[in-house]
Amino acid sequence: MLLVIPRGQFIMSTISGMPLFFLCCLYLIIVICEASFGPSYEYSKYCNNSNGNYTANSIYQTNLNTLLSTLTSHTEIDYGFYNFSHGQNSDKVYAIGLCRGDVKPDECRSCLNNSRVSLTRLCPKQLEAINWEEKCMLRYSNRAIFHTMDASFSYHMNNVNNATDAEEFNKVLGELLRNLSDKAASGDSRRKYAADTAVFANLQTIYGLVQCTPDLSRQDCGKCLHWSLADFGNVFKNKVGAVVLRPSCNVRYEIYPFYDEPTPSASIYYQHRSLCFPFTTTEVSPTIFLAKWHGMCKKLQLHTRLHK
Ligand SMILES: *[C@@H]1O[C@H](CO)[C@@H](O)[C@H](O)[C@H]1NC(C)=O
Ligand SMILES: *[C@@H]1O[C@H](CO)[C@@H](O)[C@H](O)[C@H]1NC(C)=O
Ligand SMILES: *[C@@H]1O[C@H](CO)[C@@H](O)[C@H](O)[C@H]1NC(C)=O
Ligand SMILES: *[C@@H]1O[C@H](CO)[C@@H](O)[C@H](O)[C@H]1NC(C)=O
Ligand SMILES: *[C@@H]1O[C@H](CO)[C@@H](O)[C@H](O)[C@H]1NC(C)=O
Ligand SMILES: *[C@@H]1O[C@H](CO)[C@@H](O)[C@H](O)[C@H]1NC(C)=O
């Protein structure tokens, strides 16, 4: 039988009478029960009150409505980034639509369409406004906003729970998000997105996602993400999940899956140290067990990955 001691150190004497497949089943049951999803966030909009207003039935309003309906009914774009403008001179409107990198074209369009409806209702006269939803962002302005980084405003949300092993958690999280930022920044003009997982010592998985509007240069994308990562360190110290939204980039991490992976998904596996507790020991042989246990956890992780 097995014993678990704090910090993920396991000790074993024998596993006789405990067929491995039983352990697997038990593990999977716990895994499924533990696959709880976190709280949902209140996504937000931003009406820029310092950039001027338009009047009802103005040319600007007509241009805006035309632009947004063109944008949300456009069916050729399949990479989730829309940069459209419409109108002339001071009545010209620029809009950017950006869907989260894993979102399919149909879902992307309907997310942007919903944003259009709520944004023009919530910011009924501002020349410039932004709406964030979980899966897309829609922005418009009278200013030329393409190829220009805007990190002037940020919106923060977080899970209230603290990581149990904060030091290790923050270290792995920081490394994961920095890696993802480098990867996203080096994306092309259609996609600057990266999402991946990292497993830390107590076998919990961290899911991270970063994205820039792909019209930014590599440097500007890197800068916008860098500032957002700094917010994580300061504002959300030790939190098990958080989101930072800026007009030009966004970052999110959780300890549960929240995005779709392009490859077979791991969305049902979620590891927790408590799942190891049913096992106790009489005789100690730490090295042998450690090797076996880690081997098994890895195998199961692979198993659930392949069978989703
Ligand atoms: C709002 O408008 C002002 C004036 O144009 C601008 O300086 C500021 O950056 C805008 N805010 C955002 C978040 O774009
Ligand atoms: C635009 O309208 C908003 C909401 O009524 C108001 O708070 C803001 O001061 C106005 N901005 C300008 C530049 O007039
Ligand atoms: C967008 O939303 C509006 C209002 O809900 C709806 O009437 C329209 O059909 C939608 N358009 C698309 C392209 O989904
Ligand atoms: C998380 O940690 C902070 C700072 O130590 C504390 O104020 C807060 O109450 C903790 N949150 C929970 C849910 O335990
Ligand atoms: C970050 O990238 C480095 C270099 O590619 C890699 O060795 C490391 O495992 C990555 N860390 C995480 C947490 O993804
Ligand atoms: C819009 O985005 C596409 C794809 O990134 C790019 O090729 C194009 O030049 C952009 N158009 C404008 C006006 O910035």
Helix and strand sequence: EEHEHEEHEEEHEEHEEH
Mean pLDDT: 78
Low-confidence residue ranges = 1-36, 263-308
Approximate strand percentage: 15-25%
CATH superfamily placement of the largest domain:
Gnk2 domain, C-X8-C-X2-C motif
What is the count of DSSP helices, taking H or I runs of 4+ residues? 6
Shape: elongated
CATH architecture of the largest domain: 2-Layer Sandwich
Task: Find the CATH topology of the largest domain.
Answer: Killer Toxin P4, Chain A
Largest sheet: 5 strands, antiparallel
How far apart the termini lie comes to 30 Å
Strand order in space, largest sheet: 3-6-7-5-4
Radius of gyration: 23 Å
Q: Specify the helix fraction band.
A: 25-40%
Number of strands: 12
Instruction: Name the bound molecules.
Output: 2-acetamido-2-deoxy-beta-D-glucopyranose
Total domain count: 3
Give the CATH level 1 class of the largest domain: Alpha Beta
| Helix vs. strand class | alpha+beta
